[in-house]
């Protein structure tokens, strides 16, 4: 059973107290853990909105297919509508939701960064509250993230992206389900389901320029666009997936290890292990991806200098 949200508005920074009314609709709908029926209805609405937005974008490309020869191919128009209308859009929404609630859902991380408390104290104290406390805003973010991943998985299968992408989406769905069903690690949802998706949003836009998973010929037609998005992705990846990921991951791993060793919440411990495994796997992948970003960057600089 989930613990209620114990983060008091009185303890929130003054700016957040003044703007708390902007979250009243969320806090009202998610004041208590929603029922399965509510989550299913919410998912139906989100899926309908995403399909409508994607097909509206597809209709726009259909109407303007004479703008460029690349748009005259129906498959290309579908790829652009998917990557922009669903993937990039949802990642930006998740990032916005995560940034909006980060300071109130897990203030210890902010206080440790600003020096109000020592990082060691934040890591050692209150781990059960951070791992097993229900937060309306974090739940809302996790629920949106879950249904986006459902749509993403369906698209991955329909577009035949490959088993690697299916496995990745299955893992993210599993983690999101654990957050929703057992209220595990909701304090970390604003970063891992939200802010970290900034780099993914840029990557979804950049993917359009890939000849395999994007639109063939788009990079040759708009080379400056590819370079600009590539540079933006490299910066966003290093900030979100290297620096902030390491910072938040430090606290999460400490909390998880303390919970596995000392917590009496046996029902939730298997999910803590699942989260630890997912975090470890993604962290390893990101080290590999960082190396690839460096190699690609060096190749681009070499090509420009010696072209």
TrEMBL record:
InterPro entries per record: TLC-dom
Segments passing through the bilayer: 35-53, 131-150, 162-180, 187-209, 229-253, 274-295
Name the UniProt record assigns to this protein: TLC domain-containing protein
Subcellular location: Membrane
Membrane topology: Multi-pass membrane protein
Domain TLC: 128-294
UniProt GO cellular component terms: membrane
Pfam family, one: TRAM_LAG1_CLN8
Alphabetically ordered keywords of this record: Membrane, Transmembrane, Transmembrane helix
Primary site of residence: membrane
Top-rank lineage group of the source organism: Eukaryota
């Amino acid at each position: 059973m989930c613990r209620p949200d114990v983060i008091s508005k009185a303890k929130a920074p003054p700016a957040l107290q003044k703007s708390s009314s902007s979250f009243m609709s969320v806090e009202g709908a998610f004041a208590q853990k929603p029922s399965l029926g509510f989550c299913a209805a919410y998912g139906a609405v989100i899926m309908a909105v995403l399909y409508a937005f994607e097909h509206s974008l597809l209709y726009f490309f259909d109407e303007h297919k004479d703008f460029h020869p690349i748009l005259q191919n129906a498959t290309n128009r579908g790829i652009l509508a998917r990557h922009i209308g669903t993937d990039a859009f949802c990642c930006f929404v998740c990032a916005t939701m995560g940034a909006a609630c980060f300071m109130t859902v897990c203030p210890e991380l902010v206080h440790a960064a600003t020096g109000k408390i020592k990082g060691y104290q934040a890591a050692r104290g209150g781990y059960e509250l951070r791992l097993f406390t229900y937060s309306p805003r974090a739940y809302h973010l996790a629920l949106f993230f879950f249904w986006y991943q459902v749509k993403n998985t369906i698209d991955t299968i329909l577009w035949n992206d490959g088993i690697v992408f299916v496995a990745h989406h299955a893992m993210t769905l599993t983690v999101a389900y654990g957050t929703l069903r057992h209220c595990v690690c909701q304090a970390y949802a604003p970063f891992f389901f939200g802010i970290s998706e900034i780099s993914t949003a840029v990557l979804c836009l950049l993917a359009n320029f890939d000849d395999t998973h994007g639109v063939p010929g788009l990079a040759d037609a708009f080379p400056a666009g590819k370079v600009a998005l590539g540079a933006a992705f490299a910066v966003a990846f290093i900030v979100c997936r290297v620096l902030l990921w390491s910072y938040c991951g430090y606290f999460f791993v400490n909390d998880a290890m303390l919970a596995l060793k000392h917590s009496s919440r046996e029902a939730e411990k298997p999910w803590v292990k699942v989260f630890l495994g997912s975090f470890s796997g993604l962290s390893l992948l990101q080290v590999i991806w960082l190396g690839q970003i460096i190699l690609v960057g060096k190749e681009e600089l070499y090509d420009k200098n010696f072209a």
